[in-house]
Amino acid sequence: MGGVGQVLVLDYLNPFWWLAVAILGFKLFALVDAATRREDAYRAADKKTKGFWLALLGIAFGLDLLFGLGFLTLAGLVAAIVYMVDVRPAIRALTNRGGRNDRNMGPYGPW
After folding, report:
1. pTM, whole model, 2 decimals?
2. Distance (Å, whole) CA 89 – CA 85
3. DSSP per residue, 17-63
4. Which helix (H) or strand (E) holds 105?
5. Residue 76 and residue 12: Cα distance in Å, rounded?
């Protein structure tokens, strides 16, 4: 059983169930975050376009829903991790959606 069936089985005692749900949730968070960012922020951060990241993360999420854990899951997980640790911080720094006021920030924190 793979894909959606693997998640819907609700086998709480199986560690692979928890792993599948966690990976699926992480990919969904990355996809929603990429969809909410502005298109021009991707170009300003000198990253790939918004459409590229939406397509990549959407395919990774969709394949994970269809086939479950496997090689494609790992490839999609790598794409989601790259987005979260490289692209997202660069875009947040440009759009200042971090919730802090950068005008009063020194090199080691607020002053």
Report:
1. 0.75
2. 7
3. HHHHHHHHHHHHHHHHHHHHS-HHHHHHTT---HHHHHHHHHHHHHH
4. strand 105-106
5. 24
State how far the Cα of 33 lies from the Cα of 56, in Å rounded to an integer.
Answer: 13
CA distance readout (Å), 40 to 21, 37, 94, 100: 32, 9, 10, 21
CB of 61 closer than 8 Å to CB of 79: no
- Residue 7 confidence (pLDDT) above 80: no
What is the band of 49 on the pLDDT scale with cuts at 50, 70, 90?
A: very high
pLDDT band at 73 (very low <50, low <70, confident <90, very high): confident
Q: Answer whether residue 4 shows pLDDT above 80.
A: no
In angstroms and rounded to an integer, the radius of gyration of the C-alpha atoms of the chain is: 17
